[in-house]
């Protein structure tokens, strides 16, 4: 893998809480998914990579640049696109004005060229016909698409997307996957999500964080493989307190020990993820 982003012993604390606990991570071109429970440190890591938050310790090298150094940080900002978790857009701006405003901040100085670029990114996220709509009148999913559009301005080499599919309807989710997988052919994309389906559909690599640490790095298939031999289908619910649920066909899917009469099932990414985080042990507690 050509490494485009190197994270070394990255640490961030808030008071006594360690939010990033010496995180090491290498990324290359392609789409990498970042999974982890609430509070795992995903947003904090993404903010450090997007240069909106300075770590307490450790280092980052992204696109050959060191964001701890002022000039290199500026150079990196010119080449990265960031969709934050909570963009907080100005509600009175129109969609076009908002994207144009971000384009100005991204130093697209030629007005005609900039407007062409704004129209391009709005078309990418299917918002071209909403260009004159005020941000406050957009639905949640449309706001999310506008947030993605502004991240795509100036064709960044590094795209950092914090929960980009939140609020998207199924059609827009498909469009998003097509767009991001195309971008990932030549760029480095890191996206955090709680949707294991997005990871399965889109990501070549997956990173799982828990408690401020990276606890897994590999392919989606390898993450599913964590649950190999530990996923079962049975007609009756398991006794004890394994993690299980009733499926649409009225049978039971159990994660962990084989329930009586259980037959093995093909593990999904979610199964591997839950086992990695110790979910059956928690269910038993
Ligand atoms: N500015 C802050 N001050 C104090 N604590 C913070 C601050 N920002 C984040 N934290 C804490 O850091 C921890 C990690 O937060 P972070 O937002 O990085 O998690 P996350 O993995 O993105 O979670 P989620 O899936 O809920 O978005 C949480 O315990 C959070 O409360």
TrEMBL record:
GO molecular function terms attached to this record: ATP binding; ATP hydrolysis activity
Signal sequence coordinates: none
Keywords tagged on the record: ATP-binding, Nucleotide-binding, Transport
Location of the ABC transporter domain: 5-236
Keyword ATP-binding assigned: yes
Pfam families: ABC_tran (PF00005)
Matches recorded under SUPFAM superfamilies: P-loop containing nucleoside triphosphate hydrolases
Family in the record: Belongs to the ABC transporter superfamily.
Protein name, as recorded: ABC transporter ATP-binding protein
Annotated organism of origin: Planobispora takensis
